[in-house]
Structures are given as structure tokens and as C-alpha cells.
UniProtKB/TrEMBL annotation:
Subcellular location: Cell inner membrane
Keywords noted in UniProt: Cell inner membrane, Cell membrane, Membrane, NAD, NADP, Oxidoreductase, Translocase, Transmembrane, Transmembrane helix
GO molecular function (one): NADP binding
InterPro entries for this protein: NADP_transhyd_a_C
Source superkingdom: Bacteria
Protein name: proton-translocating NAD(P)(+) transhydrogenase
GO biological process, one term: NADPH regeneration
Domain NAD(P) transhydrogenase alpha subunit C-terminal: start-end pairs: 55-138
Catalytic reaction equation(s): NAD(+) + NADPH + H(+)(in) = NADH + NADP(+) + H(+)(out)
């Protein structure tokens, strides 16, 4: 019994260390985008604002996502919806981390809003997937 308890405590310590490392990595991840924006600002002689650079990347990502989704054949729409739900479930983990580790009420509030929105997204995605699968079902006569 003591070995099981010790093993559980060791696993809990490992998990908390992994969470601390993830939080530390989350804090440094925006640094890459900031560095790229500052590099564009410096290379252009100050003509490109770092915000404009990051906003341009965001807009390009929207267009890429739009064309990727619309170029999928109709037979693959159901698996695409399933993958979208899987990605949304990863967002749930991030929202839970934001709510649980938040140092301020604002961060916890945004995490809670993100959690609610992604929950609606996942639920709606499963409903749409269910309806799409029902279209392929053979009808009983």
C-alpha cells in the first residue's frame, strides 16, 4: 500500500513539474512572434510596425485555413469535422490551464470565456458530425 501511495506521489510530482514547464514555455512562446515582428521592424528601417507584421500573419492564416477547408472533397468533410473537434479539445486543455493557473482575475475570466466558447464549439461539432454520418446511413424501407 505504501509503495502505491509513493508511486502516486511521484507521478503527481512529475505532473506538477510538467505543468510548471508548460507554463514557462507558454510565457516564452510569444517571444518568438515578438522577435519576428521586431526583426521586420528593424529590417524595414522602422516602416513596419510589429503589430502590423503579426496581424498580417494572422490574416494569411485565415486565408490558408479557408482554402484548405474549401478544397476538401465532400467525402472527407466528416473526418475533417472530427479533427476539428480534436483540435478544440486541445484548446480546452489550454483554457483549463488559464483558469487554473491564472495570477489575476482577468486571466481567469478570459480562460473561463474560452472554456465556454470551445465547449459550445465541440458540442456543435459533434452534432454536425452526427448529422453528416446520418446522411450516409442506408434508409430502412
Amino acid at each position: 500500500m505504501d509503495q502505491t501511495l509513493q508511486k502516486a506521489l511521484d507521478q503527481l510530482d512529475q505532473a506538477s513539474a510538467a505543468v510548471r514547464l508548460a507554463v514557462q514555455n507558454m510565457a516564452t512562446a510569444p517571444g518568438g512572434a515578438e522577435a519576428a515582428g521586431n526583426a521586420a521592424h528593424a529590417m524595414s528601417g522602422g516602416a513596419i510596425d510589429p503589430f502590423v507584421f503579426r496581424f498580417a500573419i494572422f490574416v494569411l492564416a485565415i486565408f490558408v485555413g479557408y482554402y484548405v477547408v474549401w478544397s476538401v472533397t465532400p467525402a472527407l468533410h466528416t473526418p475533417l469535422m472530427a479533427v476539428t473537434n480534436a483540435i478544440s479539445s486541445v484548446i480546452v486543455v489550454g483554457a483549463l490551464l488559464a483558469v487554473g493557473i491564472a495570477a489575476s482575475g482577468v486571466a481567469a475570466g478570459f480562460g473561463f470565456v474560452a472554456l465556454m466558447l470551445v465547449s459550445v464549439n465541440i458540442f456543435g461539432g459533434f452534432l454536425v458530425t452526427q448529422r453528416m454520418l446520418a446522411m450516409y446511413k442506408k434508409k430502412d424501407k
